[in-house]
Amino acid sequence: MFYYHLNRLKSEDKYAEEKETIMSIFHEHKGRYGYRRITDEMRNRDKAINHKTVQKLMQSMGLKSQIRKVRYRSYKGTVGKTAPNIINRNFAASAPNQKWATDITQINIGNTKLYLSPILDMYNGEIISYNISKSPNLEQIYDMLDKAFAKYDNLDGLIIHSDQGWQYQHYGYRQRLKQRHITQSMSRKGNCLDNAMAENFFGIMKSELLYAEKFESPEAFIKALDEYIDYYNNKRIKSRLNGKSPVQYRTLSITG
Fold it and tell me: Do the beta carbons of residue 90 and residue 193 sit within 8 Å?
């Protein structure tokens, strides 16, 4: 009798099975996934479903991602010079230091706003350098560049990609790149997918660090971030890197 009623309910609701899977994924990830990531995870489980359908089903079940996305937008119009979108979503690189990406994200710790500005190598996703500051200013960008440049004698031919944020349009930033014979590339205005590699890192870091722990102070988060980036570069494996960490993958490419 139980299975009769269960089958009857399922026949009355053609999405009963999908709802069960959505609910399972939602709670498995502690409410961190919105409808798009749940859609992706369902596809990983060989359950093809449109993201709009997932969104409607989640709304009907009262499920909403508990993670509020906070994105810092540094675009303030044309304040300097913009560059063409040379990368054009071609994030593949055959060797280190061919293509770098940079961006800024805002992080809220209590009432304090922090701004993280990293450079990552598109070849292996490695964080080359970063600066975290309580103010999104040029000094932050210069410090990030100086740390990166100090690691390499020659960066001729490198392309560095960013959005159209005012910092990247600034004369001082452009000159620093020019002095190192680095080509500048910029996303189209307001299109975060054009800088998807930097966005992806921010999403991973926030899921695995910022939202996974409770930080009592900005200083506690900064300390944890330092440790996390070391872990991310040296220990956290990626399937696209054949199960290696970014540093392991780079090292093998050099020795191999």
Answer: no
Tokens of 67: 């993670």
Structure tokens at 45: 């489980």
pLDDT digit string, tens, across residues 195-233: 999 999 999 999 999 998 999 999 999 999 999 999 999
Q: Which among 256, 253, 203 is positioned nearest to 93, based on CA atoms? A: 253
Distance separating alpha carbons of residues 224 and 209, to the nearest angstrom: 8
CB 132 within 8 A of CB 115: yes
Please tell me whether residue 182 adopts helix, strand or coil conformation.
coil
Give the torsion sign (CA, 46, 48, 51, 57): negative
Confidence band, pLDDT 50/70/90 cuts, at residue 192: confident
In the three-class reduction of DSSP (H, G, I as helix; E, B as strand; rest coil), residue 47 is classed as coil
Q: What percent of the chain has pLDDT over 90?
A: 61
CB-based contact 210:230 (threshold 8 Å): no
Q: What is the pTM of this model?
A: 0.71
Three-point CA angle 103, 236, 44, nearest 5°: 85
Question: How does pLDDT run across 88-134, given as a tens digit for each residue?
Answer: 999 999 999 999 999 999 999 999 999 999 999 999 999 999 999 99
Residue 36 makes CB contacts below 8 A (sequence gap 6+) with 51
The DSSP call for residue 94 is S
**Spatial separation of the C-alpha atoms in residues 158 and 145, rounded to whole Å:** 13
- Choose among 151, 143, 197, 195: nearest CA to 167: 143
